[in-house]
Fold this protein.
Amino acid sequence: MAENIIEVRNLSVEFPLSNGTVHAVNNVDFDVEKGKITALVGESGSGKSTMAMAMLNVVSSPGIIKEGSIYYKGQDILKYDKTESIKYKWKEVSMVFQAAQNALNPVMLIKEQIIETAKAHDARLKESHIIKKASELLDFVRLDPKRVLDSYPHELSGGMKQRVMIAFSLLLDPKLVILDEPTTALDVITQDYIFDILIKVHKEMGITMLLLTHDIGVVAKAADKIGVMYAGEVVEVGDVYKMFKEATHPYTVNLMNAAPSLIDDLKDKKPIIGLTPNLLIKPTICSFYERCDNAMDICKSKKPELSNAESDHLVACHLCNKAGVMK
Ligand code: SF4
């Protein structure tokens, strides 16, 4: 049986604002399987980044984790004390945030930033040890360590900066790395190159990964498992082959039909018609109801729950009964 490194249970995250409360993540259950690459896919505002922040207990203000638990190796990280929390972040789980390349300090050399980051987590580390480790990691992500360590961020390309951030995330030997939109803003060839490197890190260093992306097409090469988020909810989870061959939830199907690829004619691609629901209103019916071509009466009276379509395939849709048979 698969072993999970993270288990999210009944997680809800809210952002109280002056005009109401944004329900960013609603009662989500989600597992990150140990030793695998899991992708969490969804359009902007679907809640995937908020959920990842919650997995590190770093939801930005005014956000609050309203309810739920996040189990790491069986312990709820939301109950960690300060010391446990510091150890958990970076040493157990690290994260490369969205547009992370822009997070590099423009007036500091890369080596100064690496030393500062490592010492912030363990002041006892010697600079010589940090530089040796950083050099090995930069070499591992196919960068010239000497050149990169003595560079300022503006002297590196976007793809090089992203690889520096991946090396940063590995500095303290985490077991799980979360990468938020790791290839956004990079050209297609660099995207492919970054995924090659992530697969190498995963396979050769044995690191579990969670990739967050709005582009379901880009994760096909790397992911073992895909979860799809819509309007703060996980609506489908399955093995990557099953998801590409037999996606079941109407939103996932539409997402697949909208994703451009190198082999399909762009004229055959269809946008998803309609708007995402207002997140100020906590959903009590299927969140995809207004945009769904298959909507039925039950969909506006009963909220579908994420349940087994097959043993390793979960779907939150009234179209799919428990035996995985389309009604
Ligand atoms: Fe469409 Fe109903 Fe399924 Fe929602 S539950 S996705 S409205 S068929």
Residues 188-205 form the longest helix (18 residues). The pocket of iron/sulfur cluster is lined by residues 249-250, 286, 288-289, 292, 294-296, 299, 304, 317-319 (CB under 6 Å). DSSP finds nine helices and twelve strands in the chain.
